[in-house]
Amino acid sequence: MKRFADREEAGQLLAERLAAEGPWNDPVVLALPRGGVPVARPVADRLGAPLDLLLVRKIGAPGNPELAVGAVVDGTDREAVWNDDLLRLMGLSREDMAPAVARALAEIEERRRLYLGDRAPVPVEGRDVIVIDDGIATGATMRAALRAVRRRNPASVTLAVPVAPADTLHELRPLVDRLVCLAVPEPFHAVGLHYEDFRQTTDEEVRALLARGPEIGGQEQKGGA
After folding, report:
1. pLDDT per residue over 119-175, tens digit each?
2. For residues 201 and 206, what is the distance between their CA atoms, to the nearest angstrom?
3. Domain housing 107
4. Whose CA is closest to 131, among 30, 50, 217?
5. CATH code at position 91
6. Bridging pattern class, strands 51-53 and 128-132
7. Ramachandran category for residue 218: left, alpha or beta (phi over 0 → left; psi -120 to 50 → alpha)
8. Same domain, 14 and 48
9. Nearest by Cα to 59 from 88, 97, 20, 24
10. Three-state DSSP string of the chain
11. CA dist., res. 104 & res. 10, Å (int)
């Protein structure tokens, strides 16, 4: 089993693949922190695109916080994405979850301020959005993120990851216009097994990587057809 040396190498390989997938319409790269940021930075650099964060916080069921009934996703219009079937099954309404939503929004605000200071989210309407993480396992968090991005009226949504299992990719494919995954191992056990160096990305590394690039898009692309 060939493994990526680290997240940066995975990002460089992903960047070359995505450049070949072009052309891109005023692209924006959105990374799920923390591990998605070092993968996304080479992609943003290669495409001449701004790099922003896509912050997601799970909303757990009352008394069972590990059971996700929804998620709050960061962006210009922060919003909750719900599993309405599960809410109905538990006899809950969206209004019942208002306190949990408020807590999730506060956590997102704190993380965005930590990583980006006062910088506003990059607008995505009418642009090609590329959503990146360092890998996907079950896809629950990514599913919420993609649904929220789609509601912001981008020109297109591309999911790009170094590694993921085939069944998860099959479930996510209807949510995107393009899906790029470098490795689809069988059997799949864990994302970290496909990296030689999978140490945790620190807050300081995230801030440094975000500070390296421009805050707005529209630069001439440095790759793609």
Report:
1. 888 999 999 999 999 999 888 788 888 988 998 999 999 999 999 999 999 999 999
2. 7
3. 56-116
4. 30
5. 3.30.1310
6. unpaired
7. left
8. yes
9. 97
10. CCCECCHHHHHHHHHHHHHHHCCCCCCEEEECCCCHHHHHHHHHHHHCCCEEECCEEEEEECCEEEEEEEEEECCCCCEEEECHHHHHHCCCCCHHHHHHHHHHHHHHHHHHHHHHCCCCCCCCCCCEEEEECCCCCCCHHHHHHHHHHHCCCCCEEEEEEEECCHHHHHHHHHHCCEEEEEECCCCCCCHHHHECCCCCCCHHHHHHHHHCCCCCCCCCCCCCC
11. 30
Q: Among the three residues 77, 96, 116, which one is the final residue of a domain in this structure?
A: 116
My answer on whether 130 and 106 are in the same domain is no
Q: What tens digit of pLDDT does each residue of 191-214 get? A: 999 999 999 999 999 999 999 876
Q: What is the distance between the alpha carbons of residues 57 and 49, in angstroms, rounded to a whole number? A: 25
Same domain, 102 and 195: no
Verify that 130 and 41 share a domain, yes or no: yes
d(CA 60, CA 142): 16
* Rounded CA separation 30/122 (Å): 9
* pTM of the full structure: 0.86
Considering the domain boundaries, does residue 216 fall inside one?
no
Residue 185, C-beta contacts closer than 8 angstroms, at least 6 positions apart: 1, 163, 165, 194
